[in-house]
Design goal:
It is built from twelve helices and eleven strands. With about 325 residues, it is an alpha/beta fold.
Amino acid sequence: METSERYRIFAEHEVRGISPCYEDWCREIAADAKVLALIEQLPMDKRQPNLVLGAARYLGVEISGYPTFKRWLVEHWGDVAEVALRRRTQTNEAGRAAVLLPVLAGLEGPLSLIEVGASAGLCLYPDRYSYLYDDLVRIDPVDGPSSVLNVCATAGEPPLPQRLPVVVSRAGVDLNPLDVDDAEDMRWLECLVWPEQWDRLRRLRAAVGVARKEAAHIVAGDLVDEVAGLVEAAAPGTTVVVFGSAVLAYLTPEARREFEGVVRDLPCRWIANEGAGVIESVAARLPVPVSDIRGRFVVSLDGVPVGVAGGHGQSLDWFGGNR
């Protein structure tokens, strides 16, 4: 995909109506030959809008109109490129637990969770967060309301549980795990939250506080290479669940198929929350055209699509009867 098209799609389908700042910047970048030329100096996998803009914010760019932003970006491009090359897009959105919960709660427990592309592991604590669905159904941990409240609008009557699942172990793998006790790692995570999304920023900070109380075991490595060992090391007598959100899109199509083959052969359940069309076998089983859900995610269980979700867990449209 051309860089200009990538930024145009990001503006029109991901941040439109959500982050006016990023919508403006990305729409303008898509038509700005000078800025596109700078971005195209980066390797292909380092040109993602959220990575480049996150790097700029990490270095202190202020929210402004595009002309001011462009002047700053051109002046500081060398530093921005260095951060983009060193860091990764590791949006660790705890709110995504809201779209995973109906699937997790339907599995026989207790659960051993393994997240691929775990980042700082904030999605490994679904039993430690509170949930509010449709402003009507609230679910809290057994010890009371959490500092993290995930709000989700639903359609199609997903099977919302009365109580949260029991989780006995939390593990994960990431090429570059982030440390919840490292101030710079956490500042980087904050810079990946889009401007104007204050609720997401507050939720991120609260989720970091939860994770600091109970460290997850996250290994550095390739998810294809490491997932089998993590499944083997999971607590005996539990249902092992391998899951991931917005991670497989960063793999080549060949690596995605390889991962799918590996995880399907393991003694585990597999939950994926990926962009529409990312997993070919899941896309082939969708009851709606991929083009109708561009910019949204597909939640699947063992390769079967069960619903369409907002990218940050803000919505879940359930496919009744497909679970």
